[in-house]
Amino acid sequence: MSGDKTDAADEPEQVAGNGLLHRRLFLTQGLTLAGALGVAGQASAQTALPKRPDWMTRQGAGLSGYGQPSKFEEGVKRLTGQPNPLFPSVGSTRTPLEKLNGMITPNGLHFERHHSSVPDINPDAHRLLIHGLVRKPLAWDMSALARYPMTSVIRFIECSGNSGAAKRNVPQTSVGQIHGLVSCSEWTGIKLSHLLDETGLADGASWIIAEGAEASSMVRSIPLETALDDVIVALYQNGERIRPEQGYPMRLLVPGCEGSVNVKWVHRIKVVSEPGDSRDETGQYTDLMADGRALKYTLLMDVKSLITHPSVSMKLAQPGVYEVSGLAWSGHGAIRRVEVTADGGKSWADAELSGPVLPKCLTRFRIPWSWTGGPATLASRAIDDRGNVQPTHEVAIARYGEIGAYHYNGIQPWAVAQTGEVANVRM
Ligand SMILES: Nc1nc2c(c(=O)[nH]1)N[C@H]1C(S)=C(S)[C@@H](COP(=O)(O)O)O[C@H]1N2
Ligand SMILES: [Mo]
Predict the structure, then answer these.
(1) Mean per-residue pLDDT pooled into runs of 10, the chain (427 residues)
(2) Is residue 411 part of a domain?
(3) What pLDDT sits at residue 6?
């Protein structure tokens, strides 16, 4: 930094239209300058602390067995849709993406998708069976599994139905309501390849069929190649045993693949020569094309990103510098680059990627933006390390057809009005 500041040096470098600033503004020029430009919610020059607040006058709460968020965060909850009156336990809840930061989803806020309900599994009575085209069928109980070497990976899970509402409509709800069927955790468990090593594989083995132990037994097929690559029988989520909603006592983690193949409460894996074409993969999770045919087993989740701050339903208090921040991910690999526009796609600037940048994992991006108070359209566009570029709405629709509800990854624009109100728009 140069010591002798001129007025010109105080002007932050604009790197794209409508006020997008260099991603290292805060690093190179410091908060003081940003403060001079007016960071919303900027620090006050009045430096006196509040006088003896209530909580400093008496003893506070004691120790606790399992910590909970502050009561002031009570509003941070999973987002629920309209419950099905006939089957209230069936459906999904969404992660409130607009209330979180960083890349990890707290366990209690991981999205849920249940096809029947959450079984109350006693881990001591639970077994994992691998059979079918294997040399030696085997079953493991929890203590047998716990003796295997484990691996930990941070990976997202995204339901292929995520963002379906944004494909069909332009809902004015919240980013979590529209796109919150995605969450990210550190998952710890045993590589499925270790277990398949023990059973051995017989001739013709080319797919596995995984079955859940809930009342309706979700069934999904996975190519053997994927199963032997990076699939994990996950026992832990962010350090603690997987929550019942996420598959306690064990689930499959199939990195980068659509949520539905991450079979929860998994108790049976059959090695087969052909995919199972189960009810869960013919009645749902196919992509109906315009010619009436459907794509099956489109398992990989495509490159995608969205801005969480600011986002639809929020309101900017006043003009000034804001951090635009969001999430990017790809089932194909790691995020290489996220570009942000503030002028509806006329110009783009590179956002900063908050590390660690991991494959098949949510990646937080950030970029400073100077809002002058005029109308602006913000959007992000992610590019992964295989060169896949997040498509526009039109291109995304062309890819999987207009009718289907799955795999929508179009660019998500937010319009900021002069009032500071943020709305969902098409770009
Ligand atoms: N056994 C079983 N596994 C399941 C499901 C289910 O209903 N039953 N739902 C699937 C779907 S569609 C998704 S998107 C993910 C959701 O995982 P989560 O509930 O842990 O977020 O789990 C998948 N695994
Ligand atoms: Mo799903």
Answers:
(1) 44 86 75 60 76 94 97 97 85 97 98 96 98 98 96 98 95 98 98 98 98 96 98 98 98 98 98 94 87 91 98 96 97 98 97 97 97 96 98 91 89 98 97
(2) no
(3) 42
CA of 249 to the centre of ligand 2 (A): 19
- Residue nearest atom 19 in ligand 1 by C-alpha distance: 112
Interatomic CA distance for residues 262 and 258, integer angstroms: 8
Check whether the bond before 368 is cis (ω within 30° of 0).
no
pLDDT in tens, 245-302: 999 999 999 999 999 999 999 999 999 999 999 988 988 899 888 888 888 999 999 9
Inside any domain, residue 123: yes
| Antiparallel, parallel or unpaired: β 128-132 and 266-272 | parallel
Classify residue 105: in a domain, yes or no. Answer: no
- Ligand lying closest to the C-alpha of residue 261: 1
Distances (CA, A) of 407 to 46, 100, 197, 422: 51, 23, 33, 25
- 55 three-state secondary structure: helix
Distance 113 CA to ligand 1 centre (A): 5
Distance 128 CA to ligand 1 centre (A): 18
Write down the pLDDT at residue 31: 60
What is the pTM (predicted TM-score) of this model? 0.94
Q: What is the CATH number of the domain that holds 154?
A: 3.90.420.10
368 and 25 Cβ atoms separated by less than 8 Å: yes
Asked if 244 and 120 touch (Cβ cutoff 8 Å), the reply is yes
Residue 10 lies in a domain: no
Say if ligand 1 is within 6 A of residue 250 CB. Answer: no
Q: Tell whether the torsion through CA atoms of 119, 123, 125 and 129 is positive or negative.
A: positive
**Domain carrying residue 247:** 114-167+184-291
Mean pLDDT of the chain: 93
Identify the CA nearest to 342 among candidates 316, 370, 364, 305. Answer: 370
Domain count, the chain: 1
| Amino acid letter, residue 40 | A
* Residues, Cβ < 5 Å to ion ligand 2: 113, 159, 259-260
Instruction: Give me the residue label for tokens 């359209």.
Output: 377
- In short, whether 159's Cβ falls inside 6 Å of ligand 1 is yes
